[in-house]
Amino acid sequence: MKRTIVLCLTALVLAGCSTHKPILYPNDHFRQVGAETAESDIKDCMALAEEAGASPADGKTTQVATGTAAGGAIGSAAGAVGGAILGSAGSGAMVGAASGATAGFLRGLFRRSPPSGTFTNYVDRCLRERGYDPTGWQ
What we know:
Layout: H1 2-17, E1 22-24, H2 28-33, H3 35-51, H4 60-86, H5 89-110, H6 117-129, E2 134-137
Helix pairs in contact: 3-6, 4-5
């Protein structure tokens, strides 16, 4: 049982930490250099973007905080309704708020968020200057 829980948590962490990357149109340059070189160039451009100060994780803290607050508010409302039905709206609201905030926090923490616009623009420009045609991010 403990092993299953550890495996599930590991999968969540890996899913939350996986990164987005640009999708390249297979133009003449891409076909000439091949997928392996293109992947290396993507990594180089991402590293250059970070060195220039563009962070792929901009806004993650705000996203987690917003998810926590929203979860707490939704949980509080749902708990108050459930508590009112059972005769203790205040207790239900407190339990609901705590549960909702925890769920919102964890969802925001492990959610794979897209990189910042500054980061993607930098990487796209770098790739275009190297002859690639980035079409989007995935």
